[in-house]
Amino acid sequence: MKYYDKLIFEISRPGRVGYSLPKSALSNQQSAISIPENLLRETPAELPEVSELDVVRHYTNVSNKNFGVETGFYPLGSCTMKYNPKINEEMASHAAFKGLHPLQSADSVQGALAIYYHTARALSELTGLADFTLTPYAGAHGELTGLMVMRQYHLMRGEAQRTRVIVPDSAHGTNPASAAVCGLEIVEVKSTADGTVDTNDLKGLLDDTIAGIMMTNPNTLGIYETQVVEIARLVHEAGGLLYYDGANLNPMLGASRPGDMGFDIMHINLHKTFSTPHGGGGPGSGPVGVAAHLVDSLPNPRVVKGENGEFKIQDAVSACGRVATFMGNFGVVMRAYTYILSLGKDIKHVGPIATLNANYVKESLRDAYYLPIDTVCKHEFVFDGLADKSTGVTTLDIAKRLLDYGYHAPTIYFPLLFHQSIMIEPTETESKETLDDFIDIMHRVAEEAIADPGMVKSAPHTTPVRRLDETTAAKNPLLKYRDLA
Length: 485
Ligand SMILES: *Cc1c(COP(=O)(O)O)cnc(C)c1O
Description:
The protein has helices at about 50-65, 85-90, 95-100, 110-125, 140-155, 175-180, 200-205, 230-235, 260, 330-345, 350-365, 395-405, 430-450, 455, 470-475, and strands at about 130-135, 165-170, 185-190, 210-215, 240-245, 265-270, 290, 300-305, 310-315, 380-385, 410, 420-425. The chain has a seven-stranded mixed β-sheet with strand order 1-7-6-5-4-2-3, with helices on both faces. It folds into three domains: about 5-65, no CATH class; about 85-345, Aspartate Aminotransferase, domain 2, CATH 3.40.640.10; about 350-475, Alpha-Beta Complex (Aspartate Aminotransferase, domain 1), CATH 3.90.1150.10. β8 and β9 form a beta hairpin. The chain is built from 15 helices and twelve strands. α11 (about 350-365) packs parallel to α13. It has about 475 residues and is of the alpha/beta class. The site of pyridoxal-5'-phosphate (PLP) has 14 residues, from α5.
């Protein structure tokens, strides 16, 4: 094993130097170095003593231990880990935009405001909603914003008693969490055996305390909610609004629009559907769109187009508030806008290809993995563990074994409807060769589970670290190399 493969972090050697500061022109003048005594260090700073090559190799090798969509297939269901084209980065780092300051006056940033404005127009066109705010920083932040709009709508109509939000039992955890953060009460609606919202159960929940329903369509099982128009009618009749969790918008692009299904409010995850990076928890962007009757409640600030074609940043008194500093993550909006323009009309192929890829993988693996709901899926689908339930090999074991083969694991143990959920979303950017290889490896793991379950249960065998305490690793990570055992 090479020295730098061994996860050795202490590479400092006394006296080794990688960089030297240029001699200051001021160093001979006494006044330049009059640092007050009480601010001077007592001991020299403890800095690593390394050569430039040591540093370059260290970081290059650490980065190679990372896994990303540019390393390999990343079928993480619900997350839409599609490839993020390089042209997005090129545009976002263009000199004309890179140096913008959020406190610049509107007349000095007309180009940026035009991009902001036209991105909102494009999202309206793709979703059938009247207008968008691009300020929320993530999908969950968009949910909160959308619920604030919903709440504002009921308050303005004198219906303050509408404080309960219906959420399907298949919903992403952020849905009830956002409702709770917004001060609303959560009411769960059941799913039928085919995985869609149970309209009979829904009917029993609707009264004048309901603010609305949050739905994902296709839902988190990748199944299209065929009753959506009827659900919209029922909820509207009861005085509620419909919120669309747009995390699953990818298979709908250019095929059907939430606004046409009857939704009043939605968010979009630009870092999913619109090919902007997921970047380790941020920065993301969760634009919120609304139907015409809710536009005045969108959060401030708004970008509007004046009579002479100039763009203005405005605040409305009827807004539900303010949810972000300045205009949100503009660099992310730039990338999404580039994606939309570079695909043009071809954006209509995104959904069908994502859907085809998911169904291809599903049908190819259904002999070895248990398919609890046997139907045509949209962009993703869920297995409930192995078909052979006698091996003792769990979904976690399968996910860990996939790492040995160089694959990122699918989403596991979500949705909660099944005990051993494995949720696979290939996205449209993967080739048939990649999908075939993944199918092959998934079959191999299923065979290993039967032939040598102990080996699968102790996977991964080839990664730098083995099985971690995942909760502690996420909540309490050791970020100082000297704490490593
Ligand atoms: C990803 C996701 C969210 C939350 O989006 P973030 O951008 O991660 O906050 C909400 N709902 C569903 C269905 C998702 O997949």
